[in-house]
Amino acid sequence: MHVVVLMKQTFDTEERIRLVDGKIAEDGVKWIINPYDEYAVEEAIQLKENQGATVTVVSVGNENTTQALRTALAMGADEAVLIEAPDLSDERAIAKAIVAYLKDKSFDVLLAGNFSVDNGAGQVAIRVAHELGLPHIAAVTKLTIEGNQATGVREIDGDVQTVTATLPALFTAQQGLNEPRYPSLPNIMKAKKKPLTTLTLSDLGLSNDDVAAKVERVEVTLPPKRQAGQKITGTPDEQAEQLAEILVKALR
């Protein structure tokens, strides 16, 4: 079994976002594997441990993205691939680059996070499945694979749904699927010797026109500062009346 994990490197969720000249400042930022992609990496490693799978992690980004790829290797992945394309900005273009890499590869399972914590679009993995003509099950909290059949459990509106698919197929990981492991020091050292291949868009037969952005980011702004809270005093009846007045004004 060959498992391919699509992953992204994102800001640490504890980082404070700063804007400089209308762009998000990246200097001095701590980078991590997108948390939802980390569930996908862990699930792939469990398939390796339980079913003898081989695990490849793939990411699109700049040279700095090797940090996240090395972390995935230290967790237990076998090899990593960086598609070096730092200027790709929209999900369509990123998915197109991944499809160009995967189209002539043999694999059984594609895993990815349900969405990334920076853009939150949740598009790339689903676009890849569509372009490759693969069935997909989104936001799984449990995944079982037996032979060429997979069963995914996903939460929907307070209930759960069980979906089956024939491999090869793509699955996106939701929180609760597993508990990602921390790489041990010996595995971190071993990861430095594992294969990490860097490819360019031209290596994949793609031109700039092929990956031209279809979406333009016009402006990036920080959310408005939270206003100070308002204290309501008086008897319970008086407080209820004041609260009602505040709510009516807010809804106007």
TrEMBL record:
Keyword Electron transport: yes
UniProt KW keywords: Electron transport, Transport
InterPro entries noted in UniProt: ETF_a/b_N, ETF_b, ETF_beta_N, Rossmann-like_a/b/a_fold
Pfam families linked to this entry: ETF
Residue ranges constituting the Electron transfer flavoprotein alpha/beta-subunit N-terminal domain according to the UniProt record: 21-208
Keyword Electron transport applies: yes
Record PANTHER family: ELECTRON TRANSFER FLAVOPROTEIN BETA-SUBUNIT (PTHR21294), ELECTRON TRANSFER FLAVOPROTEIN SUBUNIT BETA (PTHR21294:SF8)
Family stated for the protein in its record: Belongs to the ETF beta-subunit/FixA family.
UniProt protein name: Electron transfer flavoprotein subunit beta
Organism encoding this protein: Alicyclobacillus sendaiensis PA2
Lineage: Bacteria, Bacillati, Bacillota, Bacilli, Bacillales
